[in-house]
Design goal:
With about 110 residues, this protein is mainly α. The protein has one domain. The chain is built from four helices and two strands, in the order E-H-H-E-H-H. The protein has a two-stranded antiparallel ribbon with strand order 1-2. Helix 1 packs antiparallel against helix 2 and helix 1 crosses helix 4. The protein is elongated. The chain starts with a strand and ends in a 17-residue tail after the last helix.
Length: about 110
């Protein structure tokens, strides 16, 4: 399966933007929950929250960067099969390959993998 690199970079940029939005929403939920508990933050928790905020910002920046440079590589073909095979999440592979539905994931269920 061959795609144009520019299209792939743009799709990755969009996926990263979606992840950054989800991460920011999660940050807001955590902040609201912690404010409601009125418990003082220990230093480790504070540093973890700062790390999450930085992660959200970095993901957003990388997504914007990829979306921006995607136009420079619009005519470069890339073999996608092997690259997609290394991904663990089918949803990510579908999104990057352009086969994603474009629909947000189903709501109402939470799966936590430990």
């Amino acid at each position: 399966m061959k795609d144009m690199l520019g299209e792939v970079l743009a799709r990755i940029g969009q996926e990263m933007a979606t992840i950054a939005e989800t991460s920011a929403a999660l940050e807001a939920i955590i902040q609201h929950t912690m404010a409601a508990s009125q418990s003082p933050l220990d230093l480790e928790t504070f540093h973890s929250l700062q790390g999450m905020d930085l992660m959200t910002q970095k993901i957003g920046d990388l997504g914007r960067f990829l979306a921006h440079i995607s136009s420079a590589y619009c005519d470069v073909p890339i073999e996608m099969s092997e690259a997609l095979a290394v991904l663990h999440l089918q949803d990510v592979a579908n999104s990057i390959s352009g086969e994603g539905s474009g629909q947000p994931p189903e709501t109402g269920t939470i799966e936590i993998f430990l």
